[in-house]
């Protein structure tokens, strides 16, 4: 096992977990201003080493330099955004109830509640975002902002990058005044599983495959003391298109679809895996023309290539599947695969008949065009075939704003964390209102891994009753030394209820 704040191959799982627990004892007491400064310093440190980190990421992942530089910038923005959240202090949701002998339900004690960090967090890094969902990515940023030390289980697809990122960020955090062990990295798979079951670990986050995520979620739930496990497990992100939308902007819409499927070789959790169009739609020529301009791109690693080849073969072998545009697939001597996008089509009835062979996610530049009979209840189709997704997208015509369309939009919200009206789901804005999580099987719990609400996964409410001032946590004391926003229920207010 490798463990990094300072890299030490001889450290045990217990050493790592106890170091995180010791760091938590100090980190939870650190003033928000100091924690915010530490996050900003970590963002700055990443920028100072950008050339080195991007070059390493290119070698290990095959992703393009422009994509990686944009992703590194996103990672810095995430850290700075959470620094703003921490400094503001509203995330603590502090509530004070003054003691009230005349409370309408009987005498009320002095009650003071705030959200408190859960403790050390284990973060399983993703393969497809070596910066934004890896060592210093969104889950790490949210947990650190909450006041939780983080142990990252590095992804084997980019080990050198993980090691170097951990060294840079851990160093910046300590230099800013956070405890040693606030950020640690382990690289061994067995160590990651063992840490998930260690009593010092109090929550976990995961981004990856449905199979692995469900196994880890079961481990977290089976502990003698079950802990929260937020797993993002993939999504097929259907896009629904009406006849009016196609008539108005068909070629542009189909070109946007091809671009969204093909970006980063389709290795995005928000890639549209299905496009639903009315039967009789002419789409082949536009799809083929747009796909012809997509250059060959390397998949992340040989394991991803194996899975892609296996799933594409399964879909192509299903009854009723027609190839619209065959993609390329070649492997080099190292097992790396180079691909161009593939598009197929199927009728709605044939899709129902094929079941999981076609419905399961294909991670890579592959998508299925589904022809539905005109007049089909699209909300019912989504509920039947696509019940849990990160995103659902609806393309309507300019005049389609009736109550029926409104009911469809509301229904889509039952099956996805983000509903798009036009546009494409790839590209997830790092911003307060973002929801990146959805009903099962997209994620294991109701939460988000992008946006400021992501901090809530690593907090829990604690109330102190009739506590002396000198024993209260800082944000609950009358003098409010952290200067955080608070909601006060004053004595006597219940008389007006």
How would you describe the overall organization of this protein?
The protein is α/β, with parallel strands linked by helices and 497 residues long. The chain folds into two domains: 3-233 and 447-459, 3-Layer(aba) Sandwich (Aldehyde Dehydrogenase, Chain A, domain 1); 239-421, Aldehyde Dehydrogenase, Chain A, domain 2, CATH 3.40.309.10. 38% of the residues lie in helices and 18% in strands. It has a seven-stranded mixed β-sheet. A hairpin with a 5-residue loop joins strand 13 and strand 14. The longest helix is centred in the first third of the chain and has 24 residues, at 65-88. It is globular and about 75 Å long. The termini are far apart. Mean pLDDT is 96; it is low at 2-8.
């Amino acid at each position: 096992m490798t463990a990094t704040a300072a890299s030490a191959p001889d450290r045990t799982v217990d050493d790592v977990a106890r170091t995180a627990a010791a760091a938590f004892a100090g980190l939870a007491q650190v003033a928000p201003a100091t924690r915010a400064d530490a996050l900003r310093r970590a963002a700055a440190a990443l920028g100072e080493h950008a050339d080195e980190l991007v070059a390493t990421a290119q070698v290990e992942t095959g992703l393009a330099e422009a994509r990686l530089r944009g992703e590194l910038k996103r990672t810095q923005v995430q850290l700075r955004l959470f620094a703003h959240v921490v400094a503001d202090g509203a995330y603590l949701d502090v509530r004070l109830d003054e003691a009230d002998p005349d409370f309408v339900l009987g005498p009320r004690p002095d009650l003071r509640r705030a959200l408190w960090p859960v403790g050390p967090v284990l973060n399983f890094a993703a393969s497809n975002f070596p910066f934004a969902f890896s060592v210093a990515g969104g889950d790490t940023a949210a947990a650190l902002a909450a006041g939780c030390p983080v142990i990252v289980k590095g992804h084997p697809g980019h080990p050198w990058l993980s090691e170097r990122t951990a060294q840079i960020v851990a160093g910046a955090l300590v230099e800013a005044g956070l405890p040693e062990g606030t950020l640690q990295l382990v690289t061994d798979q067995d160590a990651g599983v063992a840490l998930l079951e260690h009593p010092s670990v109090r929550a976990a986050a995961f981004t990856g495959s449905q199979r692995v995520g469900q196994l880890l979620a079961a481990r977290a739930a089976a502990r003698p003391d079950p802990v929260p496990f937020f797993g993002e497990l993939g999504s097929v992100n259907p896009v629904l298109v009406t006849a009016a939308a196609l008539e108005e902007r068909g070629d542009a819409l189909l070109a946007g679809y091809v671009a969204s499927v093909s970006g980063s070789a389709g290795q995005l959790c928000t890639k549209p895996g299905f496009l639903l169009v009315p039967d009789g739609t002419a789409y082949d020529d536009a799809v083929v023309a747009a796909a012809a301009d997509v250059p060959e791109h390397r998949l992340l690693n040989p394991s991803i290539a194996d899975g892609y080849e296996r799933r594409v073969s399964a879909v192509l072998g299903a009854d009723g599947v027609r190839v619209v545009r065959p993609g390329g697939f070649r492997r080099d001597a190292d097992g790396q695969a180079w691909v161009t996008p593939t598009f197929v089509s199927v009728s709605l009835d044939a899709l129902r008949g094929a079941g999981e062979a076609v419905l399961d996610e294909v991670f890579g530049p592959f998508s299925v065009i589904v022809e539905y009979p005109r007049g089909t209840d699209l909300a019912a189709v989504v509920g039947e075939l696509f019940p849990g997704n990160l995103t659902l997208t609806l393309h309507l015509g300019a005049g389609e704003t009736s109550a029926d369309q409104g009911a469809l939009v509301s229904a889509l919200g039952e099956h996805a964390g983000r509903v798009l009206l036009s546009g494409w789901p790839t590209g997830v804005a790092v911003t307060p209102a973002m929801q990146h999580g959805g009903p099962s099987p997209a994620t294991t719990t109701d939460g988000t891994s992008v946006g400021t609400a992501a901090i809530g996964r690593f907090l829990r409410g604690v109330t102190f009753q009739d506590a002396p001032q000198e024993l209260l946590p800082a944000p609950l004391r009358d003098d409010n030394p952290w200067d955080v926003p608070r909601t006060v229920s004053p004595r006597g207010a219940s008389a007006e209820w």
